[in-house]
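Encode chain A's predicted structure.
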Amino acid sequence: MNFIEAIILAIIEGLTEFLPVSSTGHMIIGSSLMGIENDEFVKLFTIVIQLGTILSVVVLYFKRFFQSFDFYFKLLVAFIPAAVFGLLLSDMIDQLLESPLAVAISLVVGGIILLFADKWFDKPTIDSTDDISYPTAFKIGLMQCLAMIPGVSRSGATIVGGMSQKLSRKAAAEFSFFLAVPTMFGATSKKLYDFYKSGYELSGEQINLLLIGNVIGFIVAIIAIKSFIGFVTKYGFRAFGWYRIVVGGIIVILLLAGIDLQVM
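Encoded structure for chain A:
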C-alpha cells in the first residue's frame, strides 16, 4: 500500500463509517479496484484508521461527552452485547469476512429495509439521546451485533434499532455515533493486540500511513456526520436504501465478471 492508496481508503472510511451504507462493502470495491494486496498490515490499517473517525465524533459532540456519567453508563450498557458476541463469535465472523457474496447480500437486504424504515417507524416519541432508557440502550446494543455480519453496516443496524425503539431519526443517528466510540475503540485495540501478538511489527513507513489515514479519516468523517444529520432529518433513509442496493449489485457484477474481490 502506498500513500495515495492509503488516502483513498481513509476517504472511503471517513465517508461511509457513520452512514448506513457499510464501510466494508466500499472497502472491498475500493481496494479491489486499486489492486491492494490484502496482507496483515492492510487489515490492520482499515481498523486502526477508525481512531480518526472516533475522534471526529468526540470533537463534534464535545460537550455531550462531558455532560454526565449517566451518558457513559448508557453507552456501556449498549456496548456490552457487541463485546460479548464479538469475542464468542470471532471465528465465525472471520469466515463470513471471506465471502464477498455475503457482503453483497447483506447490502441488498439492508437496503430494502432502509427503503421502508421511515414508514415502519414514523411515530417517534424520543427526540433526544438524553431520554433513552437503559433497556432501550441495551436493545440498540443488541441490534449492533447484527453488524458483525459483513455488509450489514454498524450505523445502519443501530439507527434502525433506535428507530424501532421510538427514537427520532436524528436521535437514533446521534446515539449511533456515540456508540461507535467504545465499539470502534475496542475493535481497534483488539486488532493492534492481535497484530503484535502474532509477531508483526510496524515499520516507519507503515506508521506514517496510519497517521495520514487517521488524519484524513478524521477530516472527512466530520464533513460526513454534519451532512448526514441534516440530510436524514429532512429526507429520511430511502436514498441510502437504494444506494446500498446499487453497491451490492456492483459487487455481484464484479464477482460474475471473475474479479477476485479482496475482503478487508
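The CA atoms of residues 79 and 183 lie 6 Å apart.
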